[in-house]
Amino acid sequence: xxxxxxxxxxxxxxxxxxxxxxxxxxxxxxxxxxxxASEAKKKRGVPxxxxxxxxxxxxxxxxxxxCGVTEGQLAEYYHVGKTSWAKYKKDYPEFAEILxxxxxxxxxxxxxxxxxxxxxxxxxxxxTVTIKDKAGNVTGTKTTKHKRFARADGxxxxxxxxxxxxxxxxxxxxxxELRRKALELAEQGKTSPDMEGI
Length: 198
Hints:
alpha+beta; two-stranded antiparallel sheet
């Protein structure tokens, strides 16, 4: 059944529109809904170049750092500024961890190799000789392998002993002791003018 209008229209009159009753609602004081991470903080300026210049090459960077390439050389090669490189290390822990791990492995390899040189080691040497006939034409080649032994290097041995065990193998133990005392006094703030040259 159709509803009757509240204000019926009489012939010749304009229809009256009912007044809207405004219902006063209390203001909502609820917390704002958190925006998505991308909407929450839109940065202005140039976007970070880490995703384009560093992230795709992490394996290569690790390999180069393990071979002894310095961070400055890596940053220059990948066209990244030194301050940006330092910022990436701070902001991206996986990047810093890769660099630290590669440096540790490089140092370990260097120490192991220095130990081998200091103690002497065995290696294999391969020589190739070309065989010629009487007319001077090459008829073939002969490859021979020889086992050789590299003698211990006294200089490397001395270097390792002095640097790895300075208490026992220092060149001048008295100077070493004086430097330690001067360092202790400097930490306490009691440096004397006599100790500056040590």
